Amino acid sequence: MDWLILILGVPAILIPLVLLFGFAGCQLAGLCTGDEDCPGGLVCVQGACVDPGVDQPNPSPSPPENLAAIALDDQSVSLTWTNNDPAATDISFQIERTPENGEPEVFTAQATLSPTGAASATDTAIELQEGVTFIYRVRAVLGEERSDFSNRSRATVFPAAPVNLIATPVSINTIELSWTNASAIATEFSLERLDLGEIFRGAGTTHRDPNCVEGTPYEYRVFAIVAADHGGVENNQRQDVRSAASAIVPATIAFTAAFTAPPGTLINEGPNVGFCVVQRLSQTLLAAGGTHQVRILLRGPLTDSLTLDKVTISQAAAPGQGVNLYDPGPDLTEVASGVPPIAANALVTVGPVNYALDASQDLLIAFDISNTLGQGNVRVGGLTGADGFSRPATAEAGVQPRTPGYPNISPNTLRLIERIEVL
Question: Which of 126, 156, 186 is at the close of a domain?
């Protein structure tokens, strides 16, 4: 009977032991979710209970995904991808770069990683050439193990950005822009005014912006472009490839005072009708010159009104250019004609007119004053270096030479002019 009892009791003993130790053995075989699932001295690593004192082989890393290559400028390409092993602290990456119709090159990248799996790197190798399309792939490295490569992504290195952008005001509403093409492959340029966006696109390297307001500050920049139909590719898409922007250049249409009558100069009035007066301003009175435009601000009479049939401007000949220093030479330029009556005390601007004013030469301004009674009242005042030459005839403002034969009726006398401005 004892042996029978022993036989019958074996299952009752074995089954609990199997249940207890059998599952613990399975836990040793790799079924763990944390260190608490492992026997003493072992730790849970990627689902397996292992001895921390024994080097474990690295598992193969997962291939990166969603690689996107985007050119930043003519010397660098931005690469972003998804790292599928964000918990692996010692993971690194290799990038394969292949120029179109060229041989691939694999190099280790210094990648920026985040716990969410976002990864990025920038390729700034000297092998990058503007306008060349490169094909990229990336793979993960964990110890001696390497993943498969990611998807491919293409990027065309930007053309070199334009340089020497210059913005020059050339009239009361126009700014002229020019730049230098620094690219060997650019097919077009895009000029932007920052408040408007693109204002020009084309092959040229100059443009005039005619939609400006005097005194308003503007900012410009220009891009070089490889057009899509000339081979532009970015992030696997056939599209325009733009360079980085040139330096931003500011510009404001602002006239500068070339001559300003001292306060209180034009305090008298001379009633004159039907004559031409040539006002000479000596170079000592000129504070600035300008290469684009000139305008003249005239002060109306003390009483009644003034009508000017014509206003012209020129500069005296430089010494050695003629026997008469006041010969206006070939630069005689009409500033205005048929000027509406200037009311008493009014400040009226005539011009602007294209004229290159040289501050190193005397300036001549001729006024053809109306011969209508009551419309020849002229503001006058004393100013050293401002001489008036007069001739009692109309329509003389455009005659060359204008001062020979004119009597110098008013030495050191200023007429009409309150300010002359240049651009």
Answer: 156
Is residue 311 in a domain?
Answer: yes
Distance CA 255, CA 295 (A): 9
Q: What distance in Å separates the CA atoms of residue 207 and residue 97, rounded to the nearest whole number?
A: 39
Model pTM above 0.70: no
Size of the chain, expressed as the number of residues it contains: 423
> CB-based contacts of 333: which residues, under 8 Å, 6+ apart?
312, 313, 314, 353, 354, 355
Instruction: State residue 391 phi and psi, 5-degree precision.
Output: -145, 130
Residue 120 lies in a domain: yes
Whether residue 330 sits in one domain with residue 371: yes
Are 56 and 42 in contact by the 8 Å Cβ rule? The answer is: no
CA distances from 100 to 233, 351, 395 (A): 11, 59, 74
- In 65-191, which ranges are continuous DSSP H helix? none
Pairing between β-strand 256-260 and β-strand 377-382 as defined by DSSP bridges: unpaired
Q: Are strands 118-123 and 276-281 parallel, antiparallel or unpaired?
A: unpaired
Burial grade of 144 (CB within 10 A; 0-12, 13-18, 19 or more): exposed
Tell me which residue of 112, 125, 154 sits closest to 137, measured CA to CA.
154
Average pLDDT, integer, range 328-354: 89
CA distance 422 to 255: 5
Q: For residue 104, give its domain range.
A: 65-156
For residue 398 the two structure tokens come to 């455009």
DSSP three-state, residue 419: strand
- CATH number for the domain including 177? 2.60.40.10
**Domain co-membership, 213 together with 293:** no
Residue 233: per-residue pLDDT = 56
For the ranges 23-27, 131-135, 214-218, the one whose mean pLDDT is highest:
214-218
